[in-house]
């Protein structure tokens, strides 16, 4: 795992995503607050520098169960509002789990099949929850899990109430999320974390044991994972001196 500590995580992340976009690769996208600056930077590059996503497909990590697609907080709508409506990707190429399916178990299986049929995800963008989740794989998630229904952690419901008029009772309790096994099949994992509120989860992800109690720690099993942090999110790391040294002393020509 490569850990990059920088004042501008969105620039490092946008550079990585740009490389995949230029090759028309399949992008795994995330919602939440963390990737917003990265999306804004990619939209800027699209508008000002001609960066095109026209050949790309995109797969979202997760979706709330029971929210209609047109609900402002469904992830189907959120990713369009925050990112894909402002670039040149085909709308039909932006995929998300079907949170309104009558049979959500079958919908989870169908989503894994759709990812496979697209040839897999080349680059998966990730945030991390304060409880260590990626996607909505809450503590205790099987490290081999596939796209499936999960019940949200009360902490996640509290964290996400800000998107629902600060009213926890409006936050759905159930979601469809790519599983940890699904996420591990992506070619490159790119996790961004910012702010002091994430420092404990980041330390567990990078320096704790691989364990279901911190689902993000599964990144330690992936051969190509890049974790991009601002200094506040990195504050709990024991070996930050080494991570900075390793990035500053990369062999010539080695990218992320
Ligand atoms: P955030 O959420 O980016 O809104 O902090 C991250 C997550 O829950 O994965």
From TrEMBL:
UniProt keyword annotation of Hydrolase present: yes
Domain called Glucosamine/galactosamine-6-phosphate isomerase: residue spans: 21-220
Gene Ontology biological process terms from the UniProt entry: carbohydrate metabolic process; glucosamine catabolic process; N-acetylglucosamine catabolic process; N-acetylneuraminate catabolic process
UniProt enzyme class: hydrolase
Assigned GO CC terms: cytoplasm
UniProtKB keywords: Carbohydrate metabolism, Hydrolase
InterPro entries, alphabetized: Glc/Gal-6P_isomerase, Glucosamine6P_isomerase, NagB/RpiA_transferase-like
EC number: 3.5.99.6
Leader sequence residues: none
Single GO molecular function: identical protein binding
Top-rank taxon: Bacteria
NCBIfam families: nagB (TIGR00502), PRK00443.1-4 (NF001684)
Descriptive protein name: Glucosamine-6-phosphate deaminase
Gene: nagB
